[in-house]
Amino acid sequence: MTVSSYAERRGRNLEGADVSSVPEARPRRKRVTGSARIVSAVTILAVLAVWAVSARLQLVSPVFLPSPAAVWSKFIAVARDGFVDATLLQHIAASLGRVFAALIAAVLVGVPVGLAIGISTVGRGIFDPLLEFLRPIPPLAYLPLVIIWFGIGEPSKILVIAIAMLAPVALSTASGVRSVSQERINAARSLGATRGQVVRHVIVPSALPSILTGLRIALGAGWSTLVAAELVAATRGLGFMIQSAAQFLVTDVVVMGILVIAAIAFVLEFAIRRIERVLVPWAGRE
Amino acid sequence: MPRLVLDKVSVRYDGQARPAVERASISVASSDFVVLVGRSGCGKTSLLNVAAGLVTPASGDVTVDGARITAPGADRAVVFQNDALFPWLTARENVAFALRLRGIRPSERERRADALLALVKLEGSGDRRIWELSGGMRQRVGLARALAAEPQFLLLDEPLGALDALTRERMQTTLLDIWKVSRVGVLMVTHGIEEALVLGTRIVVLAPAPGRVVRTFEPGFSRRYLAGERLRDIKADPAFAAARGDLTDAIFEGEAA
Questions:
Q1: B59 shares its domain with B96
Q2: Which pLDDT belongs to residue A165?
Q3: A282, closest residue in chain B (CA to CA)
Q4: Which pLDDT band holds residue A117 (cuts at 50, 70, 90)?
Q5: What are the pLDDT digits (tens) for A271-282?
Q6: How far apart (Å, rounded) are the C-alpha atoms in residues A155 and A146?
Q7: Measured by CB atoms within 10 angstroms of the end CB, which terminus of chain B is less buried, N or C?
Q8: Of B109, B128, B150, which closes a domain?
Q9: Residue B98 to residue A187, Cβ atoms within 8 A
Q10: Phi then psi for B179, rounded to 5 degrees?
Q11: What is the mean pLDDT of residues B14-27?
């Protein structure tokens, strides 16, 4: 065997190693998501087509099912002239403001709680049952209590959303903490890190990908409690807009509102995934 | 001269009838390169973790210059088999980690980290991300990170175990070069018989069930390398082959065939 052939073989082995490690998953996954995306697009177009045709043939009364064109023109109209004393943008801003205020509150409480659950057994003993109690309760169930306690103002609405967000943030943080590799902690300790330094310099950054996943789930959960939060004494917001439209059977606004809520949820999800890629580029590459 | 001493150390893990290590004594001076070898289950890594302060022995004493060890500390920096680097930091920031813990200012720790990266032959890679580095480069970063703590002793837990043969050989010379200039005492765990002979000034052979010290060798091959002889020539020396035979026999002595 010559030296060069050996080197060649080695080179090939190295390539093989590279392929088998991380980048391999990428092109293959891209192809799968590529074809999945086409299927998704076709599905959406098919649903739109069925909707348009049944509205066109008036299979259902327009009061119950307005046509896509009607919904679109309503979208333009509401965006320009507003609905119940606020433009679409103002409704969106009101809802987004509440959801983000709630997100900040949920992070300020949820991340430390999650750290406590993940790091100390006492913390776990205290917070685990509380979260498990809170998690399965639907927002509509605790809404009345929140209103009795905190009134019908803005804080109640934010609180309703924040409660829905708390469990995902805290539990994701805790699971991130628990999955920190012991070897990494040992390495830091053997380099002279104190307990506090281990938490700050190793556990928190290690858990960051998990915390961001928690934020993503929390935003989804919070956004879907929006309508409940805006049930009582709201004057603006997408949830409020849909409810007032429903009271007057303005179905095209209801449908338009639902689509706007879905579209914004999609944009939020996309934005957080972007943020994840910037903030924790190492996630999944270790 | 600083001396790390494990005196009649026994290690017991919860739920195991037999101790993992029984009354093992090892002493590492700062001029030593001590290598622990033995079949799997002989307690090599347990002993290393005891020396690091990561595992508390059931009985026996661990001391550095007579002072008892009860916790991990920067005087005994560990390099792990799976580098255990921090992926959110660059290579340079990983190396500077111990300096950051001590509150040394950024410009100074950058300077020192770059010097250490040069020592492990990674100059110019400071800004690279950990996941962009090969296995061998990652272990070099891990080594530099441990050295940044300015330890009196380096504890190496099979640091070359996951590397391919050629990379491993290059890392062995790097290890010896660093040991020579840094004057730290080294305690290393390995599976490689040749590796033990090439690196160790003293080789401690452990036998399993329960883990205990059975023999000690003092090969002079690493000193010959440091005296200027080429590693390849040393390995070709008949004395090396003889030593390898002796060491292999000692490791597998008493094993049921």
A1: no
A2: 92
A3: B87
A4: very high
A5: 998 998 888 888
A6: 10
A7: C
A8: B150
A9: no
A10: -60, -40
A11: 79
Helical packing angle, A25-56 and A68-81, nearest 10°:
100
**pLDDT score at B253:** 78
Q: Residue B145 and residue A10: Cβ atoms within 8 Å?
A: no
**Closest residue to B54, CB basis, from A10, A186, A197:** A186
Give the C-alpha separation, A112 to B96, whole Å: 28
Provide the CB-side half-sphere exposure for A215 (13 A, CA): 22
**What pLDDT is attached to residue A10?**
40
What pLDDT does residue A46 have? 94
Whether the CB of B82 is below 8 Å from some CB of chain A: the reply is yes
**Bridge partners, B21 (sequence order):** B11, B211
Q: In what order do the strands lie in the sheet with B212-217?
A: B76-79, B153-157, B185-189, B33-38, B202-207, B212-217
Chain B: nearest CA to A123, how far in angstroms? 24
Domain boundary among B150, B167, B188: B150
Q: Tell me the average pLDDT across B125-142.
A: 86
Task: Mark yes or no for CB contact A188/B97 under 8 Å.
Answer: yes
Lowest-pLDDT choice from A5-9, A218-222, A271-275, B169-173? A5-9
Does residue A191 sit at the B interface (CB-CB below 8 Å)? yes
Tell whether B59 and B156 lie within a shared domain: yes
Q: Which two tokens stand for residue B216?
A: 């000690």
- State the pLDDT at residue A4: 43
The percent of residues in chain A predicted with pLDDT above 90, rounded, is 34
Percent of chain B whose predicted confidence (pLDDT) is above 90: 4
For position B202, which CATH number holds?
3.40.50.300
- CB–CB contact B82 A22 (8 Å): no
CB contact under 8 A, A205 and B88: yes
Asked if residue B144 has pLDDT above 70, the reply is yes
* Phi, psi (degrees; rounded to nearest 5) at A194: -80, 175
User: What residue spans define the domains of chain A?
Assistant: 25-59, 65-279
Tokens of B113: 């980290």
B27 touches chain A (CB under 8 A): no
Range of the structural domain that residue B134 is part of: 85-150
CB contact under 8 A, A286 and B131: yes
Compute the average pLDDT of residues B41-64.
84
Chain B environment of A186 (Cβ under 8 Å): 52, 54, 72, 78, 80, 84
Q: What is the C-alpha separation between B244 and B192, in angstroms, rounded?
A: 11
Chain A: closest CA distance from residue B189 (Å):
16
Is the CB of residue B56 less than 8 Å away from at least one CB of chain A? Answer: no
